[in-house]
């Protein structure tokens, strides 16, 4: 019974905890604009509180820590974490499965999208997807999918889930380190990655080194506390209070957080040259427009109040409403705003810009060695018609991969399978690079690196780079000896791998110094790890083969032992005969040889030039020393001989002997396998190195691809540069169209340019000309294969429009200025005719109809209006010294309108009587009055128009000051003319 009550109590408590956490996670917003202080208790993946003072504390879990108050499950459906949804039908930037050495670049997506492969199509499991792309993922999704059983990949139990890393976006602390996240993911430290990247603690240990059977509860292996030490956390104690609560700097994501994964940079452009987005430059942050609710489905700015139209037409954020003066409305119907305002501009030579993106080219992973990749080549802008029917700028790339063709379906091959079959062809530089790497371990007598190992071919000098490939060295030293392929740069020249002696002399090798013999042995020993399976390094010099023989526990054949004993006796006898003949004494003691004069017992140092016979004796003595050493290494038991395995110096020995294997002339290094001598680098690979190695990008020749296809076998193809290539049966390639070779595009939204930098801001011919880049720039498919069997497209091909029509339409813009002048002239003639007849009609009215009452009333009211305008205008400005305002302004405006009416009436009523051409004695007005009348009319028009211009949004504030001055001068002229008009009566 007690047990039942205990269980019921536990279930009740569990229910309370669950309901409490659910309630917390769904607390409605209280309206406050502030973000609460996040002083929280960190929890591990098992929902247990973390005590940073523990000896081995667990890493924190965002799922349990942040999920205490936030709906983690709902957040997990956000665009950054989930693969559900089509993102409003708009293409998004793909992931690219990349292997540069094999020229593989396959765009893929977790969402179903046209032209993109699914990870499952490429054999990618959740594990392999994370290992490839976890570097720019915030966790979640495939990082913590429910798996039926861990048996399919027990590494998940070791690494833990890669949970959503809330801190990746919301950590406001400067210590948030995305590069640390990348390192931890690469080490399979998934459950520790967020703790390390957020700066909460330091992580030691590498999960990748742990066995599949390890689980966190196993802890350390006492027998291996260094190499296979499991990951552990050392928390920063300063971040915690006395109650072990961590103070987290949580806030809205900063632009730096967004740009970590969403940066785009033009190739060959320096950081200082990047102006950036006009919105960011004006102080707006990314999240101002790219907003989200608790579901974390980020607003992409395609539609709504935070889209281009929402801000610039509906007034969100008070954004300016673009007038698009002179732009026909059809442009706004057929073009997206980004077409003119976003992305790079096409260069002056008509070429598209090459860009790198963080997600595809691995930008933002900082370190001593930059981690970005040159491939794939991404171009922008390509103008593409979207699903909404509007043309918008996009980025474009072309897939490349080796595949097995079955009917019309292509199954991509794994990069490692291609390397296994044709690695030295696909990556010819790696063969020479491996050898250079091995040679780099050779030391000189002082224990220092012997020299810079180099590979020479085609007049170029290559060195090994940090990535295990080859770089061309800017070599300024002396030219290497002809035929020298591998060597060392020592001082100013390229020396051979070892001293090249005169092999035509018998026993000449033994005439070398001990240091040279040891160096040769060291070079051959260093090369052994780089040898192909079943092969050994060897040096062939003028028919003499040098190779390293393992003599440990070696039974020496009787014939060889007899030969060694005989050689020692023969050389000893030869030394004795020649010494007697030369009247000298020859002493050979181990490796020491001395010659004494029999007359005075003085030691003699022979010279090859001065005393050639004594020098010959010296060589014979060295040969005797070497032969006796070989005999001394033998342990003879009865009729069997064994090499002395107890001497540390004889585990390996150089075997120097004439051989028919390999070249008979010159110095040649290579591999010896099954009695066949092969050069280190085959002639085939050597040509490929010269043709393809040395640039920033992987390059394949047609011949290279044909060789690989031949090794892969029938039915295999290579997709690149918009084509599918197969073996044409003649050692060449055949290019065909295929749906899987089609390019992938995704729209550009940033960097937004200002109106003055927009496409077409200069003139219409930016787009509308017979050869404009907008319609007719060449779009050249990119890829590793260097071939002319590609189809170069035009920009109009991607817009789904007629290029011919727009070329013809563009030609019309040559004569458009003349057309404008012609239309203006014709309309002007018609307008002048209409104006002439209108004036003639107005003249008829003025001369025929005279209304003295109206004329007199207009004169009086106009005079009164002028007086009030003078008082409210001039007196305010001149006497008080301030701008007219208040009731004075109101009166000025009202009487200004009344004055304008009177001016119009008087101009009609008195214009005929005030003709300057009339000199009739019956005229009512004098000539001076007539002049003043027309001055009043003209200045009155200026008065009215200057006032009107200031009331409409035509001129700027600066120009309005000029209008005020014009208004005042015109008013003064009107006043003076009116006074003269009044007092100057006709006599």
What does this structure look like?
This protein is an alpha+beta fold and 987 residues long. The protein is built from 28 helices and 34 strands. The strands form ten sheets. A five-stranded antiparallel β-sheet has the order 7-8-9-10-32. Strands 12-11-29-30-31 form a five-stranded antiparallel β-sheet, with helices on one face. A hairpin with a 5-residue loop joins β9 and β10. Residues 5-20 and 646-650 have low confidence and may be disordered.
Write the layout of secondary structure elements.
Elements lengths: L1 H24 L12 E3 L21 H4 L6 H4 L19 E5 L4 E5 L17 H8 L21 H5 L7 H4 L7 H9 L3 H8 L3 E4 L27 E4 L10 E3 L6 H8 L1 E3 L11 H4 L26 H5 L17 H5 L2 H5 L11 E5 H4 L16 E8 L5 E7 L3 E6 L2 E4 L2 H12 L1 H12 L12 E6 L2 E5 L5 E3 L13 E5 L2 E4 L17 H14 L8 E6 L2 E7 L4 E2 L1 H24 L2 E6 L2 E6 L5 E2 L7 H21 L1 E4 L2 E4 L8 E7 L8 E7 L2 E4 L3 H10 L9 H11 L3 E5 L2 E5 L5 E4 L7 E4 L25 H4 L1 E2 L13 E2 H5 L3 H46 L3 H29 L5 H25 L16 H24 L6 H27 L4
Helix pairs in contact: 7-8, 15-16, 15-21, 18-19, 25-26, 26-27, 27-28
Structural key phrases:
five-stranded antiparallel β-sheet, single chain, alpha+beta, 987 residues
């Amino acid at each position: 019974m007690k047990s039942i009550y205990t269980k019921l109590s536990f279930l009740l408590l569990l229910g309370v905890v669950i309901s409490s956490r659910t309630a917390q996670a769904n607390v409605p917003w209280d309206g406050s604009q502030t973000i609460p202080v996040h002083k929280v208790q960190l929890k591990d993946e098992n929902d247990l509180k973390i005590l940073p003072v523990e000896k081995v504390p667990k890493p924190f879990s965002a799922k349990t820590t942040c999920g205490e108050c936030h709906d983690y499950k709902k957040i997990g459906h956000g665009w950054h974490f989930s693969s559900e949804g089509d993102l409003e039908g708009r293409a998004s930037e793909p992931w690219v499965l990349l292997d540069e050495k094999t020229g593989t670049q396959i765009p893929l997506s977790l969402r179903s999208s046209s032209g993109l492969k699914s990870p499952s199509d490429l054999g990618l499991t959740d594990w392999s997807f994370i290992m490839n792309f976890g570097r720019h993922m915030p966790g979640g999704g495939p990082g913590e999918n429910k798996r039926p059983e861990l048996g399919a990949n027990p590494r998940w139990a070791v690494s833990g889930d890669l949970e959503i890393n809330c801190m990746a976006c919301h950590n406001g602390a400067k210590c948030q380190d995305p590069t640390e996240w990348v390192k931890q993911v690469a080490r399979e430290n998934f459950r520790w990655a967020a703790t390390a990247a957020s700066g909460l603690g330091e992580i030691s240990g590498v999960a990748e080194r742990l066995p599949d059977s390890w689980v966190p509860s196993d802890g350390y292996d006492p027998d291996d506390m260094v190499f296979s030490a499991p990951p552990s956390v050392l928390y920063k104690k300063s971040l915690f209070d006395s109650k072990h609560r961590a103070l987290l700097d949580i806030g809205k994501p900063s632009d730096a957080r967004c740009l970590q994964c969403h940066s785009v940079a033009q190739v060959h452009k320096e950081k200082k040259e990047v102006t950036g987005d006009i919105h960011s430059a004006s102080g707006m942050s990314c999240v101002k427009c790219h907003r989200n609710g608790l579901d974390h489905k980020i607003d992409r700015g395609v539609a709504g109040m935070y889209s281009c139209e929402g801000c610039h037409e509906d007034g969100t954020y008070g954004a300016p409403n673009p007038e698009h003066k002179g732009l026909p409305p059809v442009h706004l119907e057929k073009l997206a705003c980004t077409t003119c305002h976003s992305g790079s501009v096409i260069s002056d030579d008509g070429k598209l810009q090459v860009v790198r993106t963080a997600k595809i080219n691995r930008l933002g992973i900082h370190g001593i060695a930059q981690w970005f990749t040159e491939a794939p080549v991404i171009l922008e802008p390509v103008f593409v018609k979207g699903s909404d029917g509007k043309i918008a700028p996009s980025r474009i790339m072309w897939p490349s991969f080796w595949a097995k063709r079955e009917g019309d379906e292509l199954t991509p091959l794994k990069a490692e399978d291609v390397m296994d079959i044709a690695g030295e062809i696909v990556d010819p530089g790696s063969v020479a690079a491996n050898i250079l790497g091995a040679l780099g371990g050779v030391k000189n007598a002082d224990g220092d690196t012997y020299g810079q190992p180099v590979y020479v071919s085609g007049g170029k000098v290559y060195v090994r780079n940090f990535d295990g490939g080859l770089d061309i060295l800017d070599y300024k030293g002396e030219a290497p000896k002809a035929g020298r392929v591998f060597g060392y740069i020592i001082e100013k020249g390229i020396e051979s791998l070892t001293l090249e002696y005169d092999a035509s002399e018998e026993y000449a090798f033994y005439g070398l110094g001990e240091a040279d013999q040891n160096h040769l042995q060291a070079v051959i020993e260093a090369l052994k790890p780089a040898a192909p399976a079943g092969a050994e390094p060897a040096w062939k010099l003028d028919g003499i083969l040098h190779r390293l023989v393992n003599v440990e526990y070696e039974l020496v054949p009787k014939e060889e032992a007899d030969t060694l004993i005989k050689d020692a006796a023969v050389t000893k006898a030869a030394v004795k005969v020649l010494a007697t003949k030369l009247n000298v004494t020859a002493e050979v003691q181990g490796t020491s040889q001395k010659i004494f004069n029999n007359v005075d017992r003085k030691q003699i140092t022979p010279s090859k030039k001065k005393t050639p016979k004594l020098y010959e004796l010296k060589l014979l003595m060295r040969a005797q020393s070497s032969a006796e050493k070989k005999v001394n290494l033998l342990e003879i038991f009865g009729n069997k001989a064994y090499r002395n395995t107890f001497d540390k110096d004889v585990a390996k020995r150089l075997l120097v002997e004439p051989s028919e294997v390999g070249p008979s002339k010159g110095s040649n290094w290579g591999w010896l396998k099954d009695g066949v001598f092969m050069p280190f680098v085959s002639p085939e690979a050597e040509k490929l190195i010269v043709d393809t190695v040395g640039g920033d990008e992987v390059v394949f020749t047609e011949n290279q691809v044909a060789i690989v296809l031949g090794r892969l076998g029938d039915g295999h193809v290579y997709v690149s540069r918009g084509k599918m290539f197969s073996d044409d049966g003649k050692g060449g390639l055949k290019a065909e169209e295929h749906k899987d070779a089609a390019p992938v595009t995704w729209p550009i939204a940033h960097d937004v340019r200002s109106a003055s930098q927009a496409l077409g801001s200069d003139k219409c011919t930016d787009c509308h000309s017979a050869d404009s880049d907008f319609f007719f720039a060449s779009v050249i498919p990119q890829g590793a294969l260097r071939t002319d069997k590609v189809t170069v497209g035009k920009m109009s091909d991607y817009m789904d429009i007629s290029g011919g029509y727009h070329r013809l339409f563009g030609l019309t813009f040559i004569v458009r200025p003349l057309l404008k002048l012609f239309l203006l002239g014709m309309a002007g003639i018609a307008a002048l005719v209409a104006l002439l007849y209108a004036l003639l009609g107005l003249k008829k009215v003025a001369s025929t109809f005279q209304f003295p009452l109206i004329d007199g009333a207009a004169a009086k009211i106009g005079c009164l209006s002028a007086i009030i305008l003078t008082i409210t205008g001039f007196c305010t400005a001149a006497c008080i010294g301030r701008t007219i305002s208040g009731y004075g302004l109101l009166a000025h405006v009202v009487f200004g309108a009344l004055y304008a009416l009177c001016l119009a009436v008087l101009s009609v009523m008195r214009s005929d009587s005030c003709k300057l051409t009339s000199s009739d004695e019956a005229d009512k007005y004098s000539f001076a009055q007539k002049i003043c009348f027309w001055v009043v009319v003209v200045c009155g028009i200026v008065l009215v128009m200057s006032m009107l211009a200031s009331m409409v949004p035509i001129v700027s504030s600066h120009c309005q000051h000029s209008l005020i001055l014009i208004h005042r001068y015109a008013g003064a002229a009107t006043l003076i003319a009116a006074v003269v008009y009044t007092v100057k009566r006709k006599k």
